[in-house]
C-alpha cells in the first residue's frame, strides 16, 4: 500500500515538474517576443544559445569533467544542434511578425513531421493513422494561418520550419538516447546550435534583409532577455526530463500542449493578441492531430526532451 502511494506521489510530482517546465518555456517565448524587434532575430538566437552553452558547459565540467564534452556520435549531435538553430532562428523571426499563440500552435506540427522523418531516417513504418493525422494537422495550420498568409506571405510559414527543426532534434534524440547524461545531451545541442546561429547571424547581416541586419552591439535589454531565456529554458528542459523519469514519457508527452494554453493567455495579457474563433478551431485541430500521432506510438514512446 505504501509503495503504491509512493508511486502515485512520484507520478503526480513528475507531472507537476513537467508542467512547470512547459510553463517556463512559454514564459521564455514571451521574453523573446518582447525583444524580437530590437536586434537582428538570428543574432538574438545566437546570443541566447551562446549563453546557454556557456552555462551548461560550466555545470557539465563541474559534474563530469572533460569526458562529458566528448560525444559518441558527433554528426548526430550536429544534426540536433542544427535543427535547434534552424528552429530558434525561425521562431524568433516569426515572433517579430506573428501573434505568440499562432507561432506556438503551428510549431506543434512537429510530431507529424517527426513521424515522416522517422520513416525516412529511421525506417519506421508510416501508419494509415499517421497519414490521416498529417492531413488533419496541416488543415489546422492553414486555418490558423488565414490572416497571416495574406499579410505576411512566405514569412507566415516560418513556424512550420520551426517544427521541422525540432523534428530533427527529436530524431537525433532517439538515435543517441542513453549515450550520455541529460546534462551532456543538452550541452551537445546548445554548443553546435550556438555556432550555427552565429553563422546564420553573419549570413543574415550581409543578406540585405533589414530585420536580419545586426547593426552593432545589442542593448542591455536584449542581453538580459537572452540570459533570462537561456537560464529558464535550461531549467525547463531539466524539469521536463525529471518529470519524464518519474511519470513516464506516455504521461508527459500530451502535457506539452500546456504551452499553447499558456502562450494564448500570455499573448492576450501582455501583447493584446486575441485569436478569432476560426483560429481557435485551427489550434484545436493541430492539437488533436498531435495527440493522434502520440497515441499511435504510445507503446514505444521515448523521452524526446533533451533540447
Jot down its keywords.
single chain; 307 residues; mainly alpha; 12 helices; 77% helix; 0% strand; globular; disordered C terminus
What do you see in this structure?
The chain has 307 residues and is mainly alpha-helical. 77% of the residues lie in helices and 0% in strands. Helix 1 runs parallel beside helix 11. The radius of gyration is 19 Å and the shape is globular. The two termini are 37 Å apart. The relative contact order is 0.22. The C terminus is likely disordered.
Q: Topology of this structure?
A:
Blueprint: H1 2-35, H2 41-64, H3 74-97, H4 100-107, H5 110-121, H6 128-152, H7 158-176, H8 182-205, H9 220-247, H10 249-252, H11 258-271, H12 277-296
Count of distinct strands: 0
Major pleated sheet? none
| Low-pLDDT segments, ≥5 res | 299-306
| CA distance, first residue to last residue | 37 Å
Radius of gyration: 19 Å
Cα shape: globular
Average predicted local confidence, pLDDT: 85
Helical stretch tally: 12
Proportion of residues in helical segments: over 70%
Brief account:
Helix content is 77%, strand content 0%.
